[in-house]
């Protein structure tokens, strides 16, 4: 993907006096820079799950293709029955996959679910309200005209748009495409993302820990999040805490990927080299966001390649990825709808002290018999407690400048949507 980072018209927010952007403004900035891949591949349905449809799917047929029975029962002509029911001769049997003969006057056809309704029939009576006496069908009531018939084209019409371009394909989309006879779909190629970790204290799992060292959990969190979005992931490993090594890794990532993501090194410490390295190689358009956790989120470009720098604390990385990197990546994949619909719940806690920043708190929904579910918070607000995001089922949103009392309503962002 190509982009002139210096032509965006955005004002970088990395100077010391810059006010943090609101979460809405930060996300809007990222999405303005998102450019989907232009390369399109044609994939068979069994390989298209999770991919993004590049052009709309238009149905070449109608579904159902003909009037068919919605139930097991008997197809008949309503005019052949007197008020209150009557008797009809059963003249034919039509299972699914077979085609019946035109219905003779005064007769009925034994019919099964999905079978075409024979010409002349206008009603299907379910077998549970019928009686048989040899070849005679006995009805004690008059059926409603048109009952239990699925009409041709009532689901999908010829020429109807079945799936819109920009749709991330779910299992139901694949079934829908198959239902109109489509064997392959045009989808955008996968987004290529290069991932690097910054920090001399990091060690890969499986290696012994030395003094002052920790395991590099962020790399695996990031890789999991990216793979869940269908990205191709290139890992650049753990980068030495020097400006030169950081520049080299960022340059390598930008050359081979559509997006570079770094964890750690985006703050202002003497050992935080990612931010100055990006500024030397390109441009930073965003640095500070008014939220907790995850205030230092970097976004910019290395040459023409977009760059996202997440905080090093594992919870901050997880939250900022879900709120900002995920919608940016989805838009870069060609997805149109990238916003997550929040649920509502009741605070099972008091929040007596307002914060200047919006807080996204790890939380769980708990069912209630008397209305909205309750929202329980994880006991610790520390952004270093990675176990909290495994405990949680979503994020409770505490608006900036607001206090809460138990029972107050607030938004809840479920992981079932954010991680899908």
Please provide a brief summary of the model:
The chain has 420 residues and is α/β, with parallel strands linked by helices. It has four domains: 5-39 and 189-332, MoaB/Mog-like domain (Molybdenum Cofactor Biosythetic Enzyme, Chain A, 3-Layer(aba) Sandwich); 42-62 and 168-188, Molybdopterin biosynthesis moea protein, domain 2 (Alpha-Beta Complex), CATH 3.90.105.10; 68-150, Molybdopterin biosynthesis moea protein, domain 3 (Molybdopterin biosynthesis moeA protein, domain 3, Beta Complex); 343-418, Beta-clip.
Task: Give an account of the 3D structure.
The protein has 420 residues and is α/β, with parallel strands linked by helices. The protein has four domains: 5-39 and 189-332, Molybdenum Cofactor Biosythetic Enzyme, Chain A (3-Layer(aba) Sandwich); 42-62 and 168-188, Molybdopterin biosynthesis moea protein, domain 2 (Alpha-Beta Complex), CATH 3.90.105; 68-150, Beta Complex (Molybdopterin biosynthesis moeA protein, domain 3), CATH 2.170.190.11; 343-418, MoeA, C-terminal, domain IV (Beta-clip, Beta Barrel). Helix content is 20%, strand content 30%. It has helices at residues 23-33, 171-179, 217-228, 243-256, 274-281, 314-332, 387-391, 415-418, and strands at 40-44, 57-58, 68-69, 73-76, 86-94, 107-111, 123-126, 130-133, 136-139, 149-150, 161-163, 184-188, 192-198, 202-203, 214-215, 232-239, 259-263, 282-288, 291-292, 296-302, 305-310, 343-347, 358-366, 374-377, 394-398, 409-414. The protein has a six-stranded mixed beta sheet, with no helix packed on it. It has a six-stranded mixed beta sheet with strand order 16-13-17-21-20-18, with helices on both faces. Helix 3 packs parallel to helix 6 and helix 4 (243-256) packs across helix 5 (274-281). The longest helix is centred in the C-terminal third of the chain and has 19 residues, at 314-332. The radius of gyration is 30 Å and the shape is elongated. The relative contact order is 0.14.
């Amino acid at each position: 993907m190509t982009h002139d980072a210096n032509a965006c018209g955005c004002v970088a927010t990395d100077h010391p006096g810059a006010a943090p952007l609101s979460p809405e403004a930060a996300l809007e900035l990222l999405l303005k820079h998102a450019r989907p891949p232009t390369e399109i591949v044609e994939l068979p349905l069994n390989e298209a799950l999770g991919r993004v449809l590049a052009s709309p799917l238009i149905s070449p047929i109608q579904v159902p293709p003909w009037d068919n029975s919605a139930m097991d029962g008997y197809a008949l002509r309503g005019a052949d029955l007197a008020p209150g029911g009557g008797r009809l001769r059963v003249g034919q049997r039509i299972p699914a996959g077979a085609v019946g003969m035109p219905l003779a006057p005064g007769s009925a056809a034994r019919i099964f679910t999905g079978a075409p309704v024979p010409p002349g029939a206008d009603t299907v009576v379910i077998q549970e309200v019928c009686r048989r006496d040899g070849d005679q069908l006995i009805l004690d009531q008059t059926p409603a005209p048109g009952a239990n018939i699925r009409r041709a084209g009532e689901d999908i019409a010829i020429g109807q748009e079945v799936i819109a371009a920009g749709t991330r394909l779910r299992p139901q989309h694949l079934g829908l495409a198959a239902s109109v006879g489509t064997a392959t779909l045009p989808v955008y190629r996968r987004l290529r993302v290069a991932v690097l970790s910054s920090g001399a204290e990091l060690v890969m799992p499986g290696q012994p820990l030395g003094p002052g060292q920790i395991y590099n959990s962020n790399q695996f969190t990031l890789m999991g999040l990216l793979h869940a979005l269908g990205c191709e992931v290139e890992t650049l490993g753990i980068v030495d805490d020097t400006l030169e090594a950081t520049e080299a890794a960022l340059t390598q990532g930008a050359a081979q990927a559509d997006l570079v993501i770094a964890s750690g090194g985006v703050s202002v410490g003497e050992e935080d080299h990612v931010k100055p390295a990006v500024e030397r190689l390109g441009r930073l358009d965003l640095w500070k966001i008014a939220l907790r956790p995850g205030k230092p989120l970097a976004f910019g470009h290395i040459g023409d390649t977009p760059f996202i720098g997440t905080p090093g604390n594992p919870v901050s990385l997880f939250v900022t990825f879900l709120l900002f990197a995920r919608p940016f990546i989805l838009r870069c994949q060609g997805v149109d709808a990238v916003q997550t619909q929040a649920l509502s719940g009741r605070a099972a806690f008091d929040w007596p002290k307002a914060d200047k920043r919006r807080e996204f708190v790890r939380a769980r929904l708990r069912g209630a018999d008397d209305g909205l579910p309750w929202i329980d918070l994880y006991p610790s607000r520390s952004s270093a407690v990675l176990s909290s995001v495994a405990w949680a089922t979503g994020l409770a949103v505490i608006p900036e400048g607001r206090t809460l009392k138990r029972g107050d309503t607030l938004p809840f962002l479920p992981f079932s949507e954010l991680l899908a």
